[in-house]
Design a protein that fits this description.
alpha/beta; 5-stranded parallel beta sheet; 9 helices; binds adenosine monophosphate
């Protein structure tokens, strides 16, 4: 099993694709965004402010959360939302090499900004099973409005899924995260998938990469 990184702008489908990879191939899914939302749900106001501003959480906090999550993992890992900048990528390289492991694939889910924005505006998700829906995309909504098709929980909107915060998140992505494309391309690890296509198409392309 491999160590896979999904690199993408906001709303490119990192969460959805991570779940598909994990359920099909038995990988472990680590979403640093979900780890942070978990800390926020326990009352961490400082993290809430950062997430609501669309900026990145401090590297040392993220690395600590990541290390804890990796402790519980055996086999392959899909990282969703990490690394988000070059410093985190360097830390991850060090961490993996101390465990005699390496990054196998970095899959860049490429998506134009305007489509990302539309996806964010309509996005709702299930706090229980993580299933994502979209009220603005044809065929993207749940069968019963506001209720998860999979586990019947009440769907919620993420605090940072608003038009305004999206602009800041996207600016952060361009400044901090996009340089990782070159960082991994130079290492020969980068693979690009057109993420404007339907989820099934994207997953097929990801499968081709994983099984390569
Ligand atoms: P995500 O669910 O990946 O869109 O992340 C939601 C928010 O959590 C981001 O906008 C950041 O504020 C924070 N976050 C998630 N992952 C990281 C990371 N690797 N480094 C710093 N901040 C992060």
């Amino acid at each position: 099993m491999k160590n896979i990184i999904l690199l993408a702008p906001p709303a490119a489908g990192k969460g959805t694709q991570s779940k598909l990879i994990c359920s099909e191939y038995g990988y472990s899914h680590i979403s640093t965004g979900a780890l942070i939302r978990n800390e926020i749900s326990k009352g961490n106001k400082e993290l809430l402010e950062i997430v609501e501003s669309g900026s990145l959480v401090r590297d040392d906090i993220i690395i600590e959360l990541l290390k804890q999550a990796l402790n519980n993992v055996k086999g392959g890992v899909v990282l969703d939302g990490f690394p988000r900048n070059i410093a985190q990528a360097i830390e991850y390289d060090k961490l993996l090499s101390s465990l005699n492991k390496k990054v196998d694939h970095v899959i860049y889910l490429d998506l134009p900004k305007e489509i990302a924005k539309k996806r964010i505006t309509g996005r709702v998700s299930c706090p229980n099973c993580g299933q994502v829906y979209n009220t603005l995309i044809e065929g993207g909504n749940s069968k019963v409005e506001g209720i998860c098709d999979v586990c019947q929980s009440q769907l919620i909107k993420r605090v940072d899924d608003s038009d305004e915060i999206f602009e800041n998140r996207y600016a952060t992505y361009l400044k901090e995260t996009k340089p990782l494309i070159e960082y991994y391309d130079v290492k020969g690890l980068l693979r690009v998938v057109d993420s404007s296509k339907p989820a099934e198409y994207i997953f097929k392309k990801i499968e081709e990469i994983i099984n390569d």
